[in-house]
Amino acid sequence: MRKSLTWRGHKFLRDVLVHTPIVKMTMWLVVLWLLFSAGIYFAEHGAEGTSITSYGRALYWGVAALSTAGIADMPVSGFAEFIGAVWIILGSILFFGAIVATVTAYFMRPMQRPSRQIIETIEYNLEQLDDLTFDELEVLKETTDALINHIERVKQTHTERQN
Prior knowledge:
The chain has a domain at about 1-115: Helix Hairpins. By secondary structure, the protein is an all-alpha fold. It is built from six helices and no strands. The protein is elongated. It starts with a helix and ends with a helix. About 80% of the residues lie in helices and about 0% in strands. Helix 2 (about 20-45) runs antiparallel to helix 4.
């Protein structure tokens, strides 16, 4: 039972990473964070009264500004304020967009039913045969027989169309 839960957890994680845009959107978020932090640092460099005196502080500002929108130290130059505003808007759109896109893609995937997913489902269920009751095995046999009959009808229709 424990192995099955671990396998499902790994499968879930793999499905999220492979079949949703979470990795790509996270990478964009990190790249933009680094770029906008650099922009803030260079815009604030040498400004009197600024608390953003290093790239490390600019990185901190980028995270704090995006995550709390108000807790981070305020840039003092007009250009840095503009860069910060653009970062907060783009970063928020990308962050929340990544969440929405990931959840949507994950839950829409079963509705698409690609052939590989059907095969993976069958393979998973075959691994669980030892846990089935006699009645469940009987239902499985009937389902398998129906599948075989369907395959034979498709083959026959395909052969007739070719002739």
